[in-house]
Amino acid sequence: MTSKTLSNGILRAIGTILLIALGAWFLYAIQSIIIYLVVSLILTLICNPVVELLKKKCRFNNTWAVITTMILLLILVALFILMFVPLIASQARSLSLLNTESIEEKVMLLYNDLNLYLLDHGILVQDLFKDIDIASYLNMNFIPSFFNGILSTISSIGIGVASVLFITFFFLKDKVTFLVGAKKIIPDNHEIETLNSIAKINDLLTRYFIGLIFQLMIVFILYYVVLLIFGVENALIIAFICAVLNIIPYVGPLISSVLAASLAMIGGIGGDFQTEILPTALYVLIGFYIVQLIDNNISQPLIFSNSTKSHPLEIFLVILTAGFISGILGMIVAVPLYTIIKVVAKEFFPDYKIVQVLTRKL
Questions:
Q1: What is the rounded CA–CA span in Å between residue 298 and residue 303?
Q2: CB atoms < 10 A from the CB of 178, how many?
């Protein structure tokens, strides 16, 4: 190996590293656009069945079917903004303006009530925590910051919503054009497999995302009903946050239950701990547990198993593995990504036994 060959190899390696670094920086710089594209793709998968229905049942041409679908989507977005967001924002604002010192005092009162309750039952909590100053660990200033952050996010999504709707319109309208362009890029020897993969992925993920939306709506309504039944303050915002947390498989419902019970206990300060505060928190926990039983045994099997053609244990292991690798974000994207991988594997590697076992229902 000559010095010239070695130097050329080093220069090529440095150039490759620089290109990779530049590409990573570029992707980071346009991360908002990437998010818009991903959200638009999801909306396209959700809206596509409506477009096809209008074309088949109402005899609309492609353009008018897409325009009608986008109008319906805009109406839904407008209703969400005009009717739903102000309710959430008003309740969030009331929470964000709370006196944090008052909240800390309430938590200390709650701690003292809990201590007396356990003392009456022979459990000496003070001996366990005698060297710990509970008050020094209480800092409720994060509550206004948290809810003010939600309000600022709600107020700054206008550009994002407009961009997503614009991109979604052309994804729906020019879907055939995009497929034709993709066919020209795809190598001829893999064209059939690639187009089959795209069609199957579109079908499976469309059903998955539509089902997920219905699941979150059902969970939100049930959470809201439970909180209203037991008179929990700010029931709407709490139910909304808990329903959104339900997107995180397995972990989200647990966090939701603990959050709802904690807020119910804090909101009940001033009443008797043993006869009012503690029973309300337990009832909320039981109510949320019943909601999660309904969700786990009806909603999730229909969405995660039937829509993606995967066994529940298979889905559980995939989500668990993704959680260890990428945390909460990995758990959220695990099922759609795993579905895509299975479809591609079935089309391109059908002779492998492990692929045959995992994709036998596809």
A1: 9
A2: 13
Partners of 269 in beta bridges:
271
Please say whether the dihedral angle defined by the alpha carbons of residues 253, 254, 255 and 256, taken in this order, is positive or negative: positive
Following DSSP, what letter does each residue of 21-82 receive, concatenated? HHHHHHHHHTHHHHHHHHHHHHHHHHHHHHHHHHHHHS---HHHHHHHHHHHHHHHHHHIII
pLDDT at res. 62: 86
pLDDT at position 330 over 50: yes
pTM > 0.70: no
> By C-alpha distance, which of 105, 336, 357, 360 is closest to 206?
336
Task: Give how far Cα 12 sits from Cα of 3, 20, 43, 89, Å.
Answer: 14, 12, 42, 55
Q: Which residues lie closer than 8 Å to 160 by C-beta, 6 or more apart?
A: 32, 36
Instruction: Decide: 53 and 206 in contact? Cβ < 8 Å.
Output: no
Average confidence (pLDDT) over 107-111: 65
Burial class (CB in 10 A: 0-12, 13-18, 19+), 160: middle
Q: Which residue has the tokens 């119910």?
A: 264
Does the structure show a pLDDT above 70 at 236?
Answer: yes
Q: Is the pLDDT of residue 97 over 50?
A: no
Instruction: Using alpha carbons, list the distances in angstroms from residue 176 to 63, 173, 225, 239, 246.
Output: 12, 8, 44, 41, 35
Q: Quickly state the pLDDT bin for 98 (edges 50, 70, 90).
A: very low
Q: What percent of the chain has pLDDT over 70?
A: 72
